[in-house]
Structures are given as structure tokens and as C-alpha cells.
Amino acid sequence: MLDDEAVVWVKTPSGEALRLVDEYRPYIFAEPRSAEALRELVQLLEQSPFVRGVKVVEGLVGLRNTTRKRLVRIESFGARSIGRVSTLVRRSGLAAEIYGEELPHVQRYLFNRLQIEPSSRAAFNVVGNRIVSAERLEDLDEIRPPPFSLLKIQPQYSGPRLAGLVVRFSGRSQWVEGSGDRVLEGLLELVSSLDPDLIYIPGLQWGRGAPLNEWLERPAVRRAFGRCPDVWRLSQGSAAGRVFLGDIFYGFEPDEYGLAGLVERARFSFTTLGLATRWTSNRCIDSRNLYELARMNIRAPRLEYMEEVRCLVELLERDRGGVTFTPRPGLHENVAVLDFDSQYPSIILKHGISYENPSGGGRLIPSILQPWLERRLRLKRLRKTLRPNSSEELYCTERIEALKLILCTQYGISGCCWNRFGNTLAFEEINRVSREAMLTSKRVAEERGFEIVYGDVDSLFVRREGASRRDYEELAERISAATGLPMSLDRHFKFIAFPRLRTDPDTPALKRYFGLTYDGLVEARGIELRRSDTPAIVREFQERLIRTIMSFDSIGEVMSCSVEEGVKLLAEYERLVDSGLGFEELEIRKVLGRNPEEYSRGLAQSSAAAQLQALGIRLEKGREVRFVYTSQSHPNPLLRVRATQLFSGRYDKEYYRAYLRRAAETVFGAIGVSINHVVKNARLERWL
DNA sequence: GCATCCCATGTACCT
DNA sequence: ACAGGTACATGGGATGCG
Fold first, then answer.
1. What's the pTM?
2. Nucleotides of C under 7 A from a protein CB
3. A486 in helix, strand or coil?
4. Are A535 and A586 in contact (CB under 8 A)?
5. Which of A134, A182, A432, A577 is the most exposed place for a label (fewest CB within 10 A)?
6. For the domain A5-136, what is the CATH superfamily, name and number?
7. Which residues of chain A are in CATH 3.30.342.10 domains?
8. What are the tens digits of pLDDT across the range A386-445?
């Protein structure tokens, strides 16, 4: 964005990057305090050298207000003067409110003039490099992202010093060696020869990789780095014809495939790729909301969040989430999982739940949701026709996942106080309908002779003796009909087991299970093998254990043969632990929940973090630490673990043997078989 | 002085 | 600055016992 001109970069079918310009005249709306103030304000503004035009218009303000107000639309000459205009209006004291001043200039330009989502396919009518008109072209079935090339740069440090860069471009990695300015010169050459459209430097947004940040501030570097001499707006990700991606990649990966997801996010948010990777989901949705309101000619107040004061009893009754049906612990055969498809978005659509009308009949959220929900379903159907693991399928998956996040977050923020339109009643209503749908499902299933084995929010685990796939599909259809919400058969388990609480074996645990599907897949939730902080050796063991004991034909066989087979496997893995493993198998990964110095206790991760800090590795909350237990019961917490980077090959074998046994107990405990008699005895040799 | 229980803390997970 | 609901390892302190 220049002053009175917007710069639009276009990638042509032949791969050329074109710099186009367009007129940019930002405007704001002022709401005068009175009729008298209106006259004065207009008079004042007409004399201002920054004001290009003043018009009195009628318009709606906010979602809940239905009376039209008289507003002054004030257009300035460009980005530089609009701030002065705002100040002038505010200082005059004549305006009760000012609308439209908080949007970034890019947004204002996109919303009010170009009206094409960035990264869309479009046709431009130009004279020279000046845009005369632009039209968005349909590309609904395009699965590959637009041909934007991505350069990923990962600075490597030795202590605080930059030691080199790992650079990745179109699937290939290379190492740019050297220190200080020499590395950076190498990088400059690389950028000019590869000519990437997008650049991603992990951590740049957070000010990590400080040397690189400072370097990018230098005018000479900027001249060499950009595609033209335009100004940079690094905090918005734009750099004279190239985009610097930020670090927020909810729902997709910052790589070539993830680009497809990023495109969905940017288009939904009606913003640039740079901002779509800098904005949280709330901000992205806010942006789409503002765009839609601008189309409806509604001005958006800064905050329209509403939360009534209510008594505790009512709050307790209404402010709850989804339902879970307690599982029947133990082993079950032939269990189907029926899922509501996009349950919350479907509820919002079907019931018309929105900020302005939380109990139904609202328009804003449903109308925004609908096209994207349809798009996601279309992509899901399309994916079924693609070859598994083909690049087309991966692109498609990234798009589906990115949209899932956007769609679900609509629900998440509907009652959230950070959402300018948030309304707790809307949020509660979605939850209420969801719970009602689950209860209806339960009734329908039980009426037809199915047993509810388990359920959580939008998925129902059902079973009927001898039922076929088709029977389950038919049940899903019945439930769809009864609730008005789409539901389908998701997975079909040959065997599934539900553990009990470790702390209280009489109570079934929620949100955890494991089993084997008829497709031969081990599916598990919540248990050790699903956790990123479980050592790889334990995850591998537990998955093999599940597969082993569930590969028998009947429940009877599983119950009678699994101990023999399972304990044999346990012994095998204990022997692996005894014989010596590498850190890859042993390390535990944990994300720091706070800055290292803020830990009060001698927790394993804080010890590992302290060791790394001593090496000169800077750590802060949100970073991952990896460590191996070396002596769990050591009185000095710092000596209980060792950060992976310092791993010497020595580790606490007893700790890892116990971990394996714990994982085995989760599995055996769930199917109702005790291995205590085996596990209590330290030696398992006789099972080998 | 030691074992055991209780509880806050911290992290990760499910949908 | 996206939600609610859940499990559980860990480690320090309190408690109980001899």
C-alpha cells in the first residue's frame, strides 16, 4: 500500500510476477452527536486539506440496531491523510463514534474496491500497469494451490551466533554455510536467483532469529530482497512483491502442501496470505464478518459483545458443552462409530443461530458459513475420487482441514468475549441443540435395538449383535432424519476396548479407547500411544500390543490368549530397553507451558530446559524440549533427566521398563485381563 | 526416618 | 485471545507409623 495507490501483485499463467497499481481512497464514517453537530462537522471537514469528499448518508450501525442513523462518510486523499482526518474528527468533539478506522489499509482496499479474495484466480483489465477493472474467475475445482513458490529459511545458531541456514525450495533442502554477514549474502543471492513469491522464516514474527530480523531492516538488504523499490510492511508480511509468511498455521503445515490450506484461510478471511498467517482464527473470522457487513452497508462498532448477568442456577443449566455417554468398559465386538458431519456448523445453519438472533432466525453466521460448509463437503466428496497419498489428495486434505478449523471456530468464538459480536446466548444455544441431537440419536438407536457403547459430543458408538455395515449406515440415516443433521458411518471396529480410570478402576474413563477396525487399522484415542510425550519405543510397543491381541477371531480367544502373546511382546520390548536404545526411541517431548525460570517445581521439562539454557540455547514458553530420563529418583531434579542434545547413551532402564508395563496395563486393564501376577515379578525371561 | 496419601501443577488429549 | 470436557504423571507436603 502506497499513499493513494494500492499495489496488487499478480502471478500470470506463464509464471510472471506483475506489479499492478490501483487507486486507493480510504474513508471513514462519523456519527455526529446531533443535527447541529452534523452541520458543523461537514463544514469543518470541507475546509480540511486532507479531505477529498464529504457525504451525508443513512446507514445501520451494528448487528442489533435496526434503526438507520445519519452518518458522515469522509473520504481522504490516501493512507497518509486518513489518520489526520480521524484525529480532526475526534478532536472536534462533534462525533459520538467513528467507524472503519481500525481496519488495515489492505483490508479497506480489498473490501471496498478490489473485492476479490487474495490468491483467487482473476482477470484484470489494465492500461499500462494501472487496473481499470478486475473480475474474479471461478476455480472451485482447483485442488492445487496457485503456483506460488515458497522459500523456507531456518537459521541455525551455535549459541547466540548465526552459524548457517537450512534453506528449502520446491522440495529440496540445502545448507547455506558461513557465519555473520557471509551467510546472509549467500541468502541474498539465493533469493534473487530463485525469485520466490513467498518466504517463510520460522519465528521471524516473534522476533526470534534476531540477527536475521535486524538484517532485514537494512535499506540495502531491502533493495536487494524485494522485487521492486516499494516500501515493506514486514509486520503485515508484505515486502515489495514478496510475501513473508507469519507463524500461525492452524490446521495446515507451513510447506508446499500447506499452501493449499493457507489459500482457503486467506480467501475465507478475505485477506492476504501474509496476514492469514499472522492472524488468529478469531481475527480471521472477524475480517470475514466485517467484509459481509460492508456488503450489507452496515457499519461495525468496535465492540458489540453482550453478556447478561444471570443467576448461578441458570448459568449452570445453560452454560455447558457437549454430552458424553459413559462407555461400557471392557472389550466389544462389531462396534460402529456414527459421526454427525460438521455438527456445530450444521446446527448453526439449520437453526439459524447468530449473534443478532441467538435463538434462531439469525442470518449473519449462517450466511457466512454456508458457502464454506458446502465447499468443504464438495472437497470431501472430491477427495474420495483421488488416489490415496497422491499430491492431489494431500492438497485436498490440507484444504479440508483448514476449512474445518474455520468452520468449528465459528462456534468457538460465537460467545467469546474477544469476539466483537460475541453473544453467549448464541453459543449456549448451539450447545443445547447439540446435546438434544445426541439424546435423540440415543433414543433412535435404542428403539431399533442398538446398544450405545459410548458417545462424545458428535460421535456415537453403537453395537447390535450381528449388525452389518449396511445396518449401521441405515441407522445413521434414521438419526439424520430424526435430528435434521447429517450423520454418517465413520469407522467400523472389529474389536474396541474402553479403559477404566487409573486412579479409580471402578469408573470407566472418558475420551479414551483403542481398537482394530475391519480395515485392519489400529485406532486409538487418549491412551499412551496417542501422546506426543510418550517415548517412541512405548508408542510402538503399545500399538503392536493392540494389534497382536486384537488379531484373534473372537472375544473368547482374545481373553484367553492375549496374556500369553502380550506378555511375550512386553518381554521382548523390555529386553530392547535392557540392551540399549538410542535417544530417538527414548526421548520425551514436552512443550514448555511457561518460561523456564518461571517453574517452581523440579519438573522434568524445567530441568531439561535449564540444561539447554546452560548450553546457550534460548528457550521460552511454547518451545519444545526433548529429554531422556537418566535417573528418575535422583534427589537433584537436574540430574533426573538429560536433554536429548546432551544424551550420553546412559538412561534409566527401570523407568522405561515401568513405562512399557504401564502401557501394557492400559491395554490389558481395558479388556479386563489382569497381568499383575506377571508384571509384579521383575523378571520376564520365562516368557521368552 | 520412612511409607503412603492427598493435592496442586502441568501437559496433553477428545470432539 | 477458540470452546468445554477429561486423564494422568509428577513431585512436594501432610499424615501416619514405628
1. 0.91
2. 1-12
3. coil
4. yes
5. A182
6. DNA Polymerase, chain B, domain 1 (3.30.342.10)
7. 5-136
8. 998 899 999 999 999 999 999 999 999 999 888 999 999 999 999 999 999 999 999 999
